[in-house]
Amino acid sequence: MSTDRQLRVDVPGETLSPQVQAFRLVVALAQQLRTLMDRQMSASGVTTQQAALLTVVDLLGKPGLTEAARALAMTHQNVKQLAAALERKGFLEIVPDDNDARGKRLVTTRRNKAFWARRNEDDHATVAAWFSGLSDDELGRLVRLLAKAMNSARAAANRQAP
């Protein structure tokens, strides 16, 4: 898609509800941002999905695989594969659960903390540039609206959970 055209969310001859337009735009934006971040991170050997898992592990503080999978809306198997790759790279340790001999817990390493300490300033500046078309007020509103939408989506997921 060329960058000089507006992204179309409607189908010719079809009027879409604002909810469907929002869904399509959020999905397209998420994919575009993930692609940009994968490019930003490519030289490091860490993918956007791996970075997301590392963030969740730090936020949750030694989560189990299932807990991390739930937080990322991923399958247990996908998180297990990401964790194994990060363990090989030295960013994460998969340790036994103290309370369940069969369970595993995820813990980030010193190497992980040092890696992000070196990267964060430049990465944050790059992300800020991606959103430079929005004013501070617009960004604040966007964050609040996206948080509300996320809460609604999580509630729907909880209702659909087996």
Task: Describe this protein with a few key phrases.
globular, two-stranded antiparallel sheet, 162 residues, 6 helices, Arc Repressor Mutant, subunit A, mainly alpha
Instruction: Name the CATH superfamily assignment of the domain at 18-109.
Output: Winged helix-like DNA-binding domain superfamily/Winged helix DNA-binding domain
Uncertain stretches of 5 or more adjacent residues: none
Shape: globular
Q: Specify Rg, calculated over alpha carbons.
A: 19 Å
- CATH architectural type of the domain at 18-109: Orthogonal Bundle
State the helical fraction: 55-70%
Walkthrough of the structure:
This protein has a domain of 92 residues: Winged helix-like DNA-binding domain superfamily/Winged helix DNA-binding domain (Arc Repressor Mutant, subunit A, Orthogonal Bundle). 64% of the residues lie in helices and 6% in strands. It has 6 helices and 2 strands. It has a two-stranded antiparallel sheet with strand order 1-2. A hairpin with a 7-residue loop joins strand 1 and strand 2. Helix 3 packs across helix 4. The protein is globular. The mean pLDDT is 90.
